[in-house]
Amino acid sequence: MVKGKYLPKDEVLLQHPILVFVFLVLGFIVMDPFELSPVGGHDFRPVKNDIASYEEVMGNWPKDNHSRLARGDKVFVDEVFGPESLEFDIHGRGPYAGLADGRIVRWMGQDGGGWETFAFVSRNWSNEICAKGVNSTTYKQWKFEKQCGRPLGLRFDKSSGDLYIADAYFGVLVVGPKGGYATPLATNVAGKPILFANDLDIHHNGSVFFTDSSKRYDRVNHFFIMLEGEATGRLLRYDPPTKTTHVVLDGLAFPNGVQFSRDHSFLLYTETTNCRLMKYWLEGPKNGTSEIMANLPGFPDNVRINEKGEFWVAIDCCRTRAQEVLINNPWMRSVYFRLPVHMRYLAKWVGMKMYSVVSRFNEKGEILDVLEDRKGAVMKLVSEVREEKGKLWIGTVAHNHIATLALESLL
């Protein structure tokens, strides 16, 4: 370079071929022309998440040093497929479970014939197309989900005995106490389809509150909701007298589980992407407002109440420092998730080692107990925890079994 003479930027780059190579490689990765990355073929638009800092949450979160969740038992192995939500009817029978193959099944007891098909969410369901057995929780089922259905949240109306269902593709449905084909109730809002109904609960006035996790992605593509951090999810309400559906809250980041308080003065919902448990007030001076009830160490799914009015939250754990960097820098996610590398390796590189955590909260959001299964002995991915008959009944969207844990074993 001649002293005192300025070289244009392109000539400087030509004198540094390594920089040229790096820019070309980065440009190639971002364009992903051969769609080799986990987000290939998608209009991937990451944004910054509204999430509590890693230090704030992980520095104060209690640990279960005895891994008590691992004391549970795997039951019904390879008999139920992806049983996300578990319910018991007004007569105490059950559990009922919504499966990955589109059915709702009911446990009739060992002497009563075991599992029986109770209901279908789709009239297009067929054994030949939908019943994939142990493969129902794998990609082999995904292309059939829109035909077969994917029932997620289940709730019984204690007064009528009707079962209400949140199905990822068919919205909110209801089926009578004798089962059969479920009747659709809420499939759209203001003429636009509900893309990803996830969980629901029934208010004592009969209204059904439920989550629609995204207006951009359906259940098969749910990972993109989290990778982008997009917040197009909603809390919706279906009113039976008028048969209309209304938007209660909008702009939510992967809203998931739903649960009313014991007196129905407020409703809890989880925001999976933002790793938090939210409270929406239905009565009192805060009526119509939301607040954070608890920031969580991982990604929450369903929340369920027990007879004491306490709340069990199912969490896939845990957050990492490297993940924090990606969360706060959307441009890094644009590059990182366009690398031509399988998603499981990308997750491993940022320290993600998924395992199950179950937490119990009181109405104030105070942590009463934390149960962990760090080695995934009983459940690697947990979707719901239901306290019933002296046990915790634990469902999972990803595996082919249920787990149970006797409450007395926790003492």
CATH class: Mainly Beta
**Secondary structure category:** alpha+beta
Name the CATH homologous superfamily.
TolB, C-terminal domain
Characterize the largest beta sheet: strand count, sense, and whether it forms a barrel.
5 strands, mixed
Subcellular location: Vacuole
Protein name: Strictosidine synthase conserved region domain-containing protein
Keywords: Glycoprotein, Membrane, Signal, Transmembrane, Transmembrane helix, Vacuole
Organism: Daucus carota subsp. sativus
Q: What descriptive keywords fit this protein?
A:
5-stranded mixed beta sheet, alpha+beta, Neuraminidase, 10 helices, 34% strand, 16% helix, 4-stranded antiparallel beta sheet, 411 residues, 27 strands
Describe this structure in words.
The protein has 10 helices and 27 strands. With 411 residues, the chain is α+β, with helices and mostly antiparallel strands. It has a single domain (38-410), classed as TolB, C-terminal domain (Neuraminidase). The strands form 7 sheets. Strands 2-3-4-5-9 form a 5-stranded mixed sheet, with no helix packed on it. Strands 1-27-26-25 form a 4-stranded antiparallel sheet, with no helix packed on it. It has a 4-stranded antiparallel sheet with strand order 6-7-8-10, with no helix packed on it. A hairpin with an 8-residue loop joins β19 and β20. The chain crosses the membrane at residues 12-31. It is found in: Vacuole. It holds the Pfam family SSL_N. Belongs to the strictosidine synthase family.
